[in-house]
Amino acid sequence: MDGLDIGKGELIAVLGNNGSGKSTFLNVMSGLLEFTGSYRINGRPFKELAQAESARLIGFLPQEAALNMPFDAFYVVLTGRFIHSDGRMYSRGDIACTEKVMKRFDVFHLKDRLFNALSGGEKQRVLLARVMNMDTDIFLLDEPFSGIDILHQIKIVDVFRRIQSEKIIMVVIHDLSFAIHHFSRFLLFRDGRLLYDMKRDDLSTVRLSEVFGVRVGFVEQDNRMFVYTEEM
């Protein structure tokens, strides 16, 4: 593809097999990897942005986020507000934002527990709440649903929907049926490159089969689209 133009108001799913380039794409967008070509945010070349400025624009949840420090869950989420602080202490507003986002992601009841003592799914929700607490214009989320039960996955998508008109939200996800039901735009990667950029109505079994290397089919029931796959 020649170029990619992304604006606010869409829930964007980044799809493809393992090693197809999804995580590399998000790492480039976050500034963690070097790149060639042109990459602009609000019309400005990304390479001209100071690190502090890009940090206030982009919230990034990497695929293998880890935090092995004896902090309670509240403090972990609170650190997401660091980019808005004076660098020395957090304000009452930062505390209020942290409480609000923890309640949104259903982790407020874990606020006094040590992060390292949480289950895998609880840790993931705490780390996601931390990123969302940054309140950046752009959220790049690499497999944020990993290890999270279906109830909380749906709650998380509801949070995304509430803020999508004001944010850019790109999510790497492996559950194709879930992605098609909840997301509106799809970036499809294969062999290290972006193969297709499509809206939900443009998705086709032929293109999805090409991307994933398996035969993909749709089944519609009760006005919902379900996906099935089989070997070619």
Could you explain how this protein is built, in words?
The chain has a domain at 11-70 and 137-230: Rossmann fold (3-Layer(aba) Sandwich), CATH 3.40.50. The chain has helices at 22-30, 51-57, 73-78, 92-104, 120-132, 150-163, 176-182, 205-212; strands spanning 11-15, 40-41, 44-45, 58-61, 138-142, 168-172, 185-190, 193-199, 215-221, 224-230. A 6-stranded mixed beta sheet has the order 4-5-6-1-7-8, sandwiched between helices. A two-stranded antiparallel ribbon has the order 2-3. The chain is of the alpha/beta class. Helix 4 (92-104) packs across helix 5 (120-132). The protein has 8 helices and 10 strands. The longest helix has 14 residues, at 150-163.
List the topology elements.
Layout: E1 11-15, H1 22-30, E2 40-41, E3 44-45, H2 51-57, E4 58-61, H3 73-78, H4 92-104, H5 120-132, E5 138-142, H6 150-163, E6 168-172, H7 176-182, E7 185-190, E8 193-199, H8 205-212, E9 215-221, E10 224-230
Parallel strand pairs: 1-6, 1-7, 4-5, 5-6
Antiparallel strand pairs: 2-3, 7-8, 9-10
Number of helices: 8
Spatial ordering of strands, largest sheet: 4-5-6-1-7-8
Morphology: globular
Number of strands: 10
Percent of residues in helices comes to 25-40%
CATH-assigned fold name of the domain at 11-70 and 137-230: Rossmann fold
* CATH level-1 class of the domain at 11-70 and 137-230: Alpha Beta
SSE arrangement, N to C: EHEEHEHHHEHEHEEHEE
Mean residue pLDDT = 92
What structural class is derived from the secondary structure elements? alpha/beta
- Spatial extent as radius of gyration: 18 Å
Strand residues, percent: 15-25%
Largest sheet: 6 strands, mixed
- Shape-level CATH architecture of the domain at 11-70 and 137-230: 3-Layer(aba) Sandwich
| Alpha carbon gap, first and last residue | 26 Å
Q: What is the CATH homology-level superfamily of the domain at 11-70 and 137-230? A: P-loop containing nucleotide triphosphate hydrolases
As residue ranges, the low-confidence spans are none
